[in-house]
Amino acid sequence: MNGFGRGAIETAGWFGILILLYCGPTLSKPFAYITNQGDNSVSVIDTTSNRVVKSIPVGEKPAGIAVSADGERVYVTNPESMDVSVIDGKAHQVRKTIPLSAALVGVAVEPSGRRIFLADWFNHQLLVYDSGSFDLLARVSVGKAPTGIAVDRSGGRIFVANRDSNSVSIIDAASLNVIAEVAVGRHPFGISVDGKGQRLYTANVESNDVSVVSIPERKTIATIRAGDRPYATALARWDRRLLVTNQYDNSVSAIDTGTLKVVKTIEVGEYPEGISTHPDGRHVYVANWFSNDVSVIDAKYLDVVDTIRTGEGSRAFGQFIPLGWISHQP
C-alpha cells in the first residue's frame, strides 16, 4: 500500500483536540532522513508518497541523525570520518562538514534550533554546540558511554541515556547543570520524552525491557518487558502509544502508555534500529539496518502499511522527521 492509505490526520490528541498544520510553502510535506551506514548516504523520503526522492552523500559510516523542528537543518554524525554533516533541509545538500575529535553517534537539536547536542561516548560527556557557528559552548559530564539524547518540548530539560552506567542524566538546559541521574534498566540506548514533560521512556538493550521514568519524581516507576534487544523508542497517537524497535526479533513492541502493557508485537524488516513518528501522530517510520529499508506503521491499527527501499545499512538513530510541522492546542 503506497502512502498512508488510511488517512493522514486525526483530530484527537493528548491535550484534547485540535491539530493545526503549519501551511508555509516549505512545510507542505515533511521529509524523513535515513542514514545509510553501508553506502555513506542519507535517503530523503517524501512522506506524502513514501518514496525516496534523493540520496545525499555524507561522511563515512553515518549513524546518528537529528532534524531541526522546522525542517531547515539536518545533522548527521559520521563515526568513521569523525565529523558531522549539516544538510540544508530545503536544497537537500550538505552545506557544511564539522570535524570532531572522536567517533560520535548520538545527536539532538533543541526546539529553538539554536544549540546542538552530541553524546561523547568515550569521554562520558554531553557536548553542546552553537548551531550557527558550530562553536563548542560547553562540555557536561554525564554517566558512562552516553548514547541517546532527548529534549523536552519546552526546551527546558535535556535527557541523556548512559549505556554503561545504566542510568539517565537529567540536565537543566539553561544552566547545563545535571539535576538528577536516574537508574534504569541495563544498557539504555534510545529514549523518548512525552509532550507534557512528565515521563521518559528508555529502551534497555541488555535487560530486554523499557524503563518508565517519572520526570517530576526523578525515579523509575515501571519496567515493561519488550522484545529481544530493544534499541530505540518513539511516541505516537499523542503519547498514547510507545513503539520500541527490537533488533534481534525483527519487530516493534507497541505499548499502551496508560496501562503500560504491550498490546501488539509488529513484524518489520531485518534488525530494526531508528524509529520516528510523523507529525500526524499516527504513522511511524522504522529504519531496518539489515534489510536496507524502512517500515511504515499505522499506529492506530498497529500494522505495517508500507515498506520503502532505502540505502545500504539503514540505521537512522535519532529524530529523523521534523517535529515542528504540527501544533497542538487545548
Describe the fold and architecture.
This protein has 330 residues and is an all-beta fold. The chain has a single domain, classed as Methylamine Dehydrogenase, Chain H, CATH 2.130.10. 0% of the residues lie in helices and 52% in strands. It has strands spanning 18-21, 31-36, 41-46, 51-57, 65-67, 73-78, 83-88, 93-99, 107-109, 115-120, 125-130, 136-141, 146-151, 157-162, 167-172, 178-183, 188-193, 199-204, 209-214, 219-225, 230-236, 241-246, 251-256, 261-267, 272-277, 283-288, 293-298, 303-309, 326-329. The strands form eight sheets. A four-stranded antiparallel β-sheet has the order 5-6-7-8, with no helix packed on it. A four-stranded antiparallel β-sheet has the order 9-10-11-12, with no helix packed on it. The chain has a four-stranded antiparallel β-sheet with strand order 13-14-15-16, with no helix packed on it. Strand 26 (283-288) and strand 27 form a beta hairpin. The radius of gyration is 18 Å and the shape is globular. 52% of the residues are buried. Residues 1-28 and 325-330 have low confidence and may be disordered.
